[in-house]
Amino acid sequence: MADHKDVHEDILLAPIAQTGPGFYWAVAGLAVFILWGAIAYAVQFHQGLGVTGLQQPVSWGFYVTNFVFFIGISHAGTLISAILRLSKAEWRRPITRMAEVITCMVLFIGAGQILIDLGRPDRMLNVIRYGRYQSPLLWDATSISAYLTASVVYLYLPMIPDIAVLRDRLKKRKLFYSVLALGWTGTEHQQRILNRAIAIMAVLVIPIAVSVHTVVSFVFSMTLQPMWHSTIFGPYFVVGAIFSGIAALIVAMIVFRKAYGFEPYLKPIHFRYLGQLLLIMALLWFYFTFAEYLTGYYGAEPEEMKVFWAKFTGPFWPFFWGMVLCNFIIPLSCLVRLSRRTIGKVLAASLSVTVGMWLERFIIVVPTLSFPRVPFPEGVYSPSWVEWGLMAGSFALFALFYLLFTKLFPIISIWEIQEGREVGLKEVEERLLTYLPDEAEGKIFEASGGR
Amino acid sequence: MERERSDWDRVVKTLQWAIAGVFVLFVGGLIIWIIHLIRTAWRLGDVPSASVGISLVAIPVFLVLLGVVLYVFWGLLAHQREE
């Protein structure tokens, strides 16, 4: 048993213990995009937002699109991990950590988009000094702070036993791991405390995560702008967020499975289950999209219809129909039958959904501003190289953060895998028996002649 | 050797409690900020009910988060000292 445990620890610790040339190539590749983003930001900081394609009436473009997109992706982790943990889904074990890391990383990048969009980041201080809770923007700041804090805690707590393994087994970063391990030795008392704290956090993060994306949607739906003022925007955004989050999680899983040789841990069955979840979310997303657009169309309010037709047949048609293709048609055709080439199909669907959900965010933000209700002239938004650079840099920064995390901590939870082998199997058997009718009850039923 | 070990332990323990302290400051700072926003809204007569309503949700959430973190730090570190 101990040998078995050591072998698993060796495999899962290998990415931290050794670093191959692939890592440096990946970092170099990402650094190019980050440099492009850094130069773009320096230019914007120096010359102002005039270097972007933002102008009246389209004052929100790529940055706000990216903000909504990244905050949406953040639902990958905490929410999926917490739901699977609470429902005692055993297949969650190799997935939860990867999902939780995505949440923390993208929340930082997402919140950063607002700083970029401000043009002058020092103006953030005005929010702190003179903020007013009348504004949904401040609700957003508060809920994202709560979500980020909760996600970091929820990521850290289940990592403590694994950090203790790193402290005991690795010869490097001794102080770093010793501090973060909090003296973990795996005693019964420690396990009780940690399990209790993880359970509380799992319950707590679900409403926080749902509230965050609802509040993000309030930034739009609390205005009277055409195609923003909608009561279903909250759940619509939450569904989209979980949808894009699952897609991002699948992509990350496939990349690290290949890069770190985690095939024995991330099996086709994991991708099949996540693929099924993605399929359900695709259907749910389509339902919400249909309901949202049908309501607008049926009402036929002139200002709404301007935006409606701009999306369907006007200047935004490639984005709108691209979104439908990427979020519904491609995933549906890939995920309906998953018996063969599961991983390839799930990857294709996930990449498609990631692109589609970005387009969806763009389609929500920009067309409405291009055709505003107030008597502004209509405007066209065309992003400049600065916005493209900052977008590429943001995505690369997220990938770099994620990559660096895998070099510091195990990306698959060692103790949860071990617990699954040692305790989980027995627990599942016992739990299964509680779901089924007792044998004695069956006999009584038989004896009574089925009455 | 023994002394080196106890020095090491002391450094580790200090840093661990420092992390807990930073978290207390962080949550404390956020709560003070929220109270400041209520005060500002009150002073300006600018819908203070909105500030109060939101803070009634936000402050307990942050306090629960702080409670969970301190529970883990206290539970793991203080128990280790007892051992």
Assembly classification: heterodimer
Largest sheet of chain B: none
Number of domains as seen in the coordinates of chain A:
1
Q: How many strands appear in the DSSP assignment of chain A?
A: 0
Fourth-tier CATH superfamily name of chain A: Formate dehydrogenase/DMSO reductase domain
Given as residue ranges, the uncertain stretches of chain B (5+ residues, pLDDT < 50) are: none
- End-to-end distance of chain A: 50 Å
Tally of distinct domains of chain B: 1
**How many individual helices of chain A?**
18
Quote the average pLDDT of chain B: 88
Q: Biggest interface, which chains?
A: A-B, 35 and 37 residues
- State the end-to-end CA separation of chain B: 21 Å
Question: Percent of residues of chain A in beta strands?
Answer: under 5%
- Helix-and-strand structural type of chain B: mainly alpha
The percent range for strand residues of chain B is: under 5%
Question: What is the overall shape of chain B?
Answer: elongated
Radius of gyration of chain A: 24 Å
- Rg over alpha carbons of chain B: 19 Å
- Average pLDDT of chain A, rounded to a whole number, is 90
Kindly state the number of beta strands of chain B: 0
Q: Helix fraction of chain B? A: over 70%
Task: Write out key terms for the chains shown.
heterodimer, A: Formate dehydrogenase/DMSO reductase fold, 76% helix, 0% strand, B: 83 residues, mainly alpha, 94% helix
What features would you describe in this structure?
Chain A has 18 helices and no strands. The radius of gyration of chain A is 24 Å and the shape is globular. With 451 residues, chain A is mostly helical. Chain A has helices at 2-17, 21-47, 62-73, 77-86, 96-118, 124-130, 136-156, 160-169, 174-181, 188-221, 233-260, 268-299, 302-312, 317-335, 342-370, 385-408, 414-435, 439-447. Chain A has a single domain, classed as Formate dehydrogenase/DMSO reductase domain (Formate dehydrogenase/DMSO reductase fold), CATH 1.20.1630. In chain A, 76% of the residues lie in helices and 0% in strands. With 83 residues, chain B is mainly α. Chain B has one domain. Chain B has two helices and no strands. In chain B, helix 1 runs antiparallel to helix 2 (48-82). Chain B is elongated, with a radius of gyration of 19 Å. The two termini of chain B are 21 Å apart. Chain A binds chain B through residues 128, 130-134, 138-139, 142-143, 145-146, 149-150, 153, 157, 160, 175, 178-179, 182-185, 187, 189-190, 193-194, 196-197, 200-201, 204, 208, and chain B through 8, 11-12, 15-16, 19, 26-27, 30, 33-34, 37-38, 40-41, 46-47, 50-51, 54-55, 58, 61-62, 64-65, 68-69, 71-73, 75-77, 79-80, 83.
